[in-house]
Amino acid sequence: MLSLEITTETLFSDGSKYQTFRVKGGVTFSTGVYAIKNCSGDRTLKNGNLIDLKSICKYKISDNEYLWSKVLGNDRYAAKGTGKFQLIDATGVYKNLVGNTCTYALNIFDEIIFAKGVCEVEETVYKKINKN
To answer: Which residues constitute the domain of residue 37?
Structure first.
């Protein structure tokens, strides 16, 4: 479960708006570890539709390691609430995941964001990560 905070907003004459934001919440990985996710970024919306999105997220993982991801709006399908993110940095065994592009799905209910991410990784990498 993730919370969204709009930090700035600019309205344009065509009805579109530019926002900066922060997202915080918890996530679970398929290996059973948990993480606290902190993101910041910006987005452009028009008529309630997402036009562009950029975001960087930092995950503090329950095994005392870290992972960073990047979301860019040109690989997302806003109407479905799905998109792609790339793992851009990590510590420890998670360095094996850097460079992977993953898929996410999200939905917002009462200002809370529910999200799920899926990353396909080689079995050898999964086994290394799952040992933690």
So the answer is: 2-130
* pTM of the complete model: 0.82
Structure token pair of residue 74: 């040109």
The model's pLDDT over 21-56, given as tens digits with 9 standing for 90+, comes to 998 888 877 777 888 999 999 999 888 788 888 999
Exposure of 126 in the CB half-sphere (CA atoms within 13 A): 10
Q: How far apart are CA 115 and CA 89, in angstroms?
A: 21
Per-residue pLDDT tens digits for 47-89: 878 888 899 999 999 989 999 999 876 544 444 477 888 999 9
Domain count for the chain, please give it: 1
Cα–Cα distance measured from residue 33 to residue 63, given in angstroms and rounded to the nearest whole number: 7
Structure tokens at 110: 């009462």
48's torsion region: left (phi>0), alpha (psi -120 to 50) or beta?
left
